[in-house]
Amino acid sequence: MTIKVGDKIPSVTLKHLGADGMEDLSTDDLLRDKKTVLFAVPGAFTPTCSAQHVPGFLTHASEIKEKGVDQIICLSVNDAFVMNAWGKDRGTGEEILMLGDGNGDLTSLMDLTLDGSGFGLG
């Protein structure tokens, strides 16, 4: 599946661990009437994702939001506990919403799965 600007994200439930505990967030509710930058990484705490991907979006978050973006979301096939810990470790605060696609539902529906065993994943 080739993803293009304006494509509809499939309807799934993602997990977020916030100040009030575990939340189920539907993509329909999460993305409705919002301009969103959604980026996905192969795994939390991986070297490149930790050193480049998340810091890059964090560094440029205000510039991105100045262009009319309402929210920046980081998605990974990790559970919400790991995504929460990784967000704290990277200092994402309120700038990037860290979401877990623990069962890979969204990742699979968007045909974004990969065999990461050659990279120490999986």
From TrEMBL:
One Pfam assignment: Redoxin
Question: What PROSITE patterns does the entry give?
Answer: THIOREDOXIN_2
Gene Ontology biological process terms from the UniProt entry = cell redox homeostasis; cellular response to oxidative stress; hydrogen peroxide catabolic process
Report TM segments. none
Q: Which GO terms describe its cellular component?
A: cytoplasm
Which residue numbers delimit the Thioredoxin domain? 3-122
Name this protein carries in UniProt:
Thioredoxin domain-containing protein
Q: Does the keyword Zinc-finger apply?
A: no
SUPFAM superfamilies associated with the record? Thioredoxin-like
Q: Which UniProt keywords apply?
A: Oxidoreductase, Peroxidase
Molecular function per GO: thioredoxin peroxidase activity
